[in-house]
Design goal:
This protein is α+β, with helices and mostly antiparallel strands. It has two domains: 1-30, no CATH class; 37-225, Lipoprotein localisation LolA/LolB/LppX (outer membrane lipoprotein receptor (LolB), chain A), CATH 2.50.20.10. The chain contains four helices and twelve strands; from the N terminus they run H-H-H-E-E-E-E-E-E-H-E-E-E-E-E-E. It has a twelve-stranded mixed β-sheet. The chain is globular, with a radius of gyration of 20 Å. The termini are far apart.
């Protein structure tokens, strides 16, 4: 393989040398198609573990049991373990956790639900560990490269099963950009249902108040404690 200095010398014009330098920086800092699953996972860890907060637009698409629905909104994460899914389309609803408790509420309904995070069985829950101390290889069993076309050419697909969810999830696919960003997650459940999450416009280390990750029911709304918060 040519070194960066050799590649730059082969371009005589300033524009060519600039292009060669850009290519060198890409391969020095990004993930190449020849990367192994541990190398890709390490790049993801490197990108997210230094963050205090993350904000991203998301689209969630569910297909199963003859039902198909698509929703979108904004995801907020803050270390350690805080998470808010602010659904906005087609109808507002929130799924939020402060690391100890989680709440689900649809504005206008007479009841809101609350569950202890340690008892929660929800496909979105593992993402609360994305910031801070997570190692992807420890969170996903059997992590390997997946021979599945990514939604965006140039991205890399990983496959595995989230630890602790083996009874519910048969596999999860993660689409990783060359910069180590998680662009999408496809969760395949044992009953045949599929939930896909797509993430965009990721904003790192934006100020987010802790109060955003706590839910207080509006006046007249009953709060019910449960172990199931899936809408």
């Amino acid at each position: 393989m040519q070194t960066c200095s050799t590649a730059r010398r082969q371009f005589r014009s300033p524009e060519g040398r600039t292009f060669a330098l850009a290519l060198c920086l890409l391969f020095a800092t990004g993930i190449t198609a020849a990367a192994t699953a541990p190398e890709v996972a390490a790049k993801v860890d490197q990108r997210y573990n230094h963050l205090e907060t993350l904000q991203a637009d998301f689209t969630e698409t569910y297909r199963g049991a003859g039902v198909s629905r698509s929703e979108s909104g904004v995801l907020w994460l803050k270390r350690p373990g805080k998470m808010l899914w602010d659904y906005r389309e087609p109808q507002p609803k929130i799924f939020v956790t402060d690391g100890k408790w989680a709440w689900f509420y649809v504005p206008g309904e007479p009841q809101a639900r609350k569950a202890a995070v340690k008892k929660l069985d929800d496909l979105r829950s593992p993402l609360r560990y994305l910031l801070g101390k997570t190692k992807l290889e420890k969170e996903i069993t059997g992590l390997s490269l997946a021979e599945v076309p990514p939604a965006t050419p140039g991205d890399i697909m990983l496959r595995g099963v989230p630890k602790g969810m083996e009874d519910r999830v048969s596999s999860v696919l993660l689409e990783i950009t060359p910069a180590g960003e998680i662009a999408g997650i496809v969760v395949n459940e044992v009953d045949g249902a599929t939930t896909e999450y797509r993430f965009g416009n990721q904003r790192e280390n934006q100020p987010i108040a802790n109060q955003r990750f706590h839910f207080s029911p509006p006046a007249g709304v009953e709060l019910i404690e449960t172990e199931e918060l899936t809408p």
